[in-house]
Every structure is written in structure tokens, then in C-alpha cells.
Write a structure and sequence with these properties.
Layout (H helix, E strand, L loop, with lengths): L1 E5 L6 H6 L1 H5 L3 E4 L18 E3 L13 E6 L2 E6 L11 H9 L4 E3 L7 E4 L4 E4 L12 E8 L2 E8 L1
Parallel strand pairs: 1-2, 2-3, 5-6, 6-8
Antiparallel strand pairs: 1-9, 4-5, 7-8, 9-10
Length: 156
């Protein structure tokens, strides 16, 4: 299993389209908000299921603000993160993911990549494709390596 994780595209469809080959090598694409309209640029370019949540800048969105996805026996909690105070700490997010019995809590909002386990869930922020607050635009990959799911941050 291989999953691409993106967030905070904020209108940068060029970077998004530049990753279509990566997305097509995956079993799924998780979008964590702030750039919902950008996803339409992918129509006809990728052939993988997209699971998406809205962000605080996705005005009038019909997408849910959080979503639990069960893929291949692993549960993932997707949210943008602004409703969980991710700028300050990740404890509320972790507790919510645990309540949903998820192994991963995936969020965006801060534009800063993050990947750590708190001992209960793996917390991942793929960073931002549109306006990174780190060294470069980034996205995440979650894949099965040696029978175990691992995440990594990819800078572009």
C-alpha cells in the first residue's frame, strides 16, 4: 500500500499537476484542505481514489471537516487541523484520532511538515505545496515497508 498526502495547495495547481506521476503510483491520495478547488485540476490526470477534507480557507465547501478512512485494515483520521489547535499542540488531534481507533492522524494548516509518533498514533503534516513555511514545498507518503506502514516527508 502506498498513499500520497497533500495539504495547503492554495491555488498552486502547477506543483499539484507536477506530482501526478507520484499520485498515480499510489493506491490513494489524501487531501487535507486549503485548496479544494485545486483538486479539479487533477481530473483526467490521476486514476486513484481521492479522500479530501476542507480547510479553513475552503469557503462554502461541501467537504467534511474531518474524515476517517479505513484502507487495507488501517484507519486514518484526516482533518485540516485548525479546529484542533495544531498551531499550539497536537494533543487534541491525537485524542480524537484515538477515539476513532486510528493509527494515523493526518493534518495540515501549519504549512510546516511534521512526522512523529506520540506513542499512540502517528501524527503527520505533509507541509504545504502552495506556501511552505519550511525549506521547500512538500508532501507526504505513507507506504508499507517490510510489513509495517511508515511515513515520510518529501521536499520538492
Amino acid at each position: 500500500m502506498k498513499i500520497a498526502v497533500i495539504s495547503d495547495t492554495h491555488g498552486n495547481t502547477d506543483r499539484l499537476l507536477g506530482l501526478c506521476d507520484v499520485f498515480n503510483e499510489c493506491n490513494a491520495l489524501f487531501f487535507l484542505g486549503d485548496g479544494e478547488r485545486d483538486l479539479t485540476a487533477l481530473n483526467g490526470h490521476i486514476d486513484v481514489p481521492v479522500y479530501a477534507v476542507c480547510g479553513n480557507n475552503d469557503f462554502s465547501s461541501q467537504l467534511p471537516s474531518e474524515y476517517t478512512v479505513d484502507l487495507y485494515g488501517t484507519k486514518f483520521f484526516l482533518t485540516h487541523g485548525h479546529k484542533y489547535g495544531v498551531n499550539d499542540n497536537l494533543s487534541l488531534l491525537s485524542v480524537r484520532a484515538q477515539a476513532e481507533e486510528c493509527s494515523f492522524a493526518l493534518y495540515g494548516h501549519t504549512h510546516i511538515p511534521y512526522l512523529e509518533s506520540d506513542g499512540k498514533v502517528i501524527l503527520m503534516n505533509p507541509g504545504s505545496l502552495g506556501y511552505p513555511f519550511a525549506k521547500a514545498p512538500s508532501y507526504g507518503i505513507i507506504e508499507n515497508e517490510g510489513g509495517r506502514l511508515n511515513g515520510k516527508i518529501i521536499y520538492i
